[in-house]
């Protein structure tokens, strides 16, 4: 039998998930010194994961990375299987009949919880729901947010919180020519939200947002920034963190924040309040959200390991809308080991580990490997690290019995799964761009799977 990775018998890899970590894994495999065949799977008919469903519509340049991914997807030895749900349409064990190695790059599909009373009151949502909704993700398309409220609070100070608050703080005219889904633009056009509160449990030096994001807040056209200078006070450990030579990003953030604290109101119609050192301890309301109780914190611990500790002072902030933006969390996949505490698949350089032992031929990359951190580009070295491990293992992998993408497609067809190829996606893409042109938008996204598939039925292959 020919060696795995030879031109007679290319290494066959399945990649689950078509976001950045999946595509960077594909890129690293395609650059390897062996012959490969890649099948990439996504449960949606559309590729690109959070680049399509997560990146803010008013940050279009970040989405240009899809051009790199498109080049990868049009290689002869790459096949896209959109509209295929792992665990429902096909199991990992079945996939292994057709592939010598499986790389799971499915991201972190749920949210961390606050675990406080009232968390699930109507009016309290995860940031993920709102982001998915305005980005036209089919899972969130039918969510409703009460934008008739004047006060919205966002808990957490990462870049997702920055996206959510910025979208609330802009006028709809600033968003109309983005690829934001039409249903969201219609709802935001009626928004009564005037006061937006960004609440962080630690201090300005520990804030998780990056400098371009906080700078943008100071440039909002219809929204003033409000920041109490007292919230910028630093204890000794925070001052040490700020002065550290490797902490230039915090110094840049601090400069923006100090300027906000000095700047007065200029009479813009909306206000963006930034709060530090406060944790939510309860969401209150009779039947629906009416307010959040915040406890003041102090920081304790060594520099760069400081934790927020409540000091007992409570204050209530009235609000009818609240978004919890405290990080994503990975979900267990059927048939895979899972670390419940960290929300990741236990792994060693991307080799999935079950009870201390590497599972032959099973790998992970991206957020399901390292947790939900970093920007799109962080996934490139992460996926390269996984593929390096896979390539080291090639000589030890058991060749799969049916090394054929065609046979796999036939199996899925026999189960009535309408797989979406990359050529199919190109037609959905073209239809979205065409619809967008009519409205002066880069695209008008289809927000329902059936509408995406209808494009393919309208003009069959
Ligand atoms: P994140 O950066 O990890 O931020 C989570 C925030 O939630 C932090 O401020 C954290 O505070 C806070 N938090 C966690 N648990 C909390 C609790 N129990 N109570 C109160 N606050 C709590 O997560 P993210 O914003 O979801 O972003 C995920 C990743 O995507 C990040 O790496 C982010 O940079 C990236 N992203 C990038 C962009 C961009 O480049 N424009 C856009 C969106 C997302 P502590 O620091 O105290 O834990």
Helicity range of the residues? 25-40%
Low-confidence stretches: none
CATH H-level name of the largest domain... which superfamily?
A: FAD/NAD(P)-binding domain
Q: What best-fitting shape do the alpha-carbon axes yield?
A: globular
- Give the names of the bound compounds: NADP nicotinamide-adenine-dinucleotide phosphate
State the strand order across the main sheet: 3-2-1-4-18-17-16
Discrete helix count: 15
Q: Whole-Å distance between the termini? A: 36 Å
CATH class membership of the largest domain: Alpha Beta
Q: How confident overall, as mean pLDDT? A: 97
- How does the major sheet shape up? 7 strands, mixed
Question: How would you describe this structure to a colleague?
Answer:
The chain has 461 residues and is of the alpha/beta class. It folds into two domains: 11-109 and 329-420, Rossmann fold, CATH 3.40.50; 113-326, FAD/NAD(P)-binding domain. Helix content is 31%, strand content 21%. It has 15 helices and 18 strands. The protein has helices at 20-30, 49-53, 66-73, 92-95, 127-134, 159-169, 182-189, 211-218, 236-243, 248-262, 367-370, 379-393, 405-414, 422-437, 449-458; strands at residues 11-16, 36-41, 78-81, 101-104, 110-111, 124-126, 151-155, 195-199, 223-227, 270-275, 278-284, 291-300, 307-318, 321-324, 328-329, 347-348, 351-354, 357-364. The strands form four sheets. The chain has a seven-stranded mixed beta sheet. Strand 1 (11-16), helix 1 (20-30) and strand 2 form a beta-alpha-beta unit. The two termini are 36 Å apart. The relative contact order is 0.17. The structure holds NADP nicotinamide-adenine-dinucleotide phosphate.
């Amino acid at each position: 039998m020919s060696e795995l990775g030879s031109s007679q018998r290319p290494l066959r890899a399945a990649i689950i998930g078509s976001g950045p970590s999946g595509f960077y894994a594909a890129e690293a495999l395609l650059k390897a010194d062996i012959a490969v065949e890649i099948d990439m799977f996504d449960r949606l008919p559309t590729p690109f994961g959070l680049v399509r469903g997560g990146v803010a519509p008013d940050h279009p340049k970040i989405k240009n990375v899809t051009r790199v991914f498109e080049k990868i997807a049009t290689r002869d030895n790459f096949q896209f299987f959109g509209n295929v749900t792992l665990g429902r349409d096909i199991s990992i064990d079945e996939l292994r009949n057709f592939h010598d190695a499986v790389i799971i790059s499915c991201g972190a599909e749920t949210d961390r919880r606050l675990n406080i009373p009232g968390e699930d009151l109507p009016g309290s949502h995860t940031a993920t729901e709102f982001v998915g909704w305005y980005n036209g993700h089919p899972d969130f398309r039918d969510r409703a947010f009460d934008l008739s409220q004047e006060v919205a609070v966002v808990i957490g100070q990462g870049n997702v919180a920055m996206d959510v608050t910025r979208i609330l703080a802009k006028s709809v005219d600033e968003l109309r020519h983005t690829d934001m889904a039409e249903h969201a633009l219609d709802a935001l056009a009626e928004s009564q939200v005037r006061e937006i509160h960004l609440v962080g449990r630690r201090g300005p030096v520990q804030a998780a947002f990056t400098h371009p994001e906080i700078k943008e807040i100071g440039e909002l056209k219809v929204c003033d920034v409000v920041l109490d200078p007292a919230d910028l006070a630093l204890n000794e450990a925070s001052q040490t963190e700020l002065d550290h030579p490797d902490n230039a990003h915090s110094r840049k953030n601090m400069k923006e924040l100090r300027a906000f604290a000095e700047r007065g109101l200029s009479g813009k119609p909306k206000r963006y309040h930034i709060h530090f050192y406060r944790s939510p301890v309860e969401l209150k309301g009779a039947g629906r959200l009416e307010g959040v109780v915040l406890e003041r914190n102090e920081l304790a611990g060594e520099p760069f390991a400081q934790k927020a500790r409540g000091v007992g002072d409570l204050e209530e902030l009235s609000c009818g809308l609240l978004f919890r933006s405290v990080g994503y969390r990975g979900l267990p996949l059927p048939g895979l080991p899972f670390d419940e505490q960290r929300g990741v698949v236990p792994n060693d350089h991307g080799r999935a580990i079950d009870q201390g032992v590497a599972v032959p031929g099973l790998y992970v990359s991206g957020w399901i490997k390292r947790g939900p951190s970093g920007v799109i580009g962080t996934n490139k070295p992460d996926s390269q690290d996984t593929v390096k491990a896979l390539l080291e293992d090639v000589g030890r992998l058991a060749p799969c019995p049916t090394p054929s993408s065609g046979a796999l497609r036939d199996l899925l067809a026999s189960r009535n799964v309408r797989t979406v190829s990359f050529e199919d996606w190109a037609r959905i893409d073209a239809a979205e761009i065409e619809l967008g042109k009519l409205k002066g938008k880069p695209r008008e996204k289809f927000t329902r799977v059936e509408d995406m598939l209808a494009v393919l039925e309208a003009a069959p292959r």
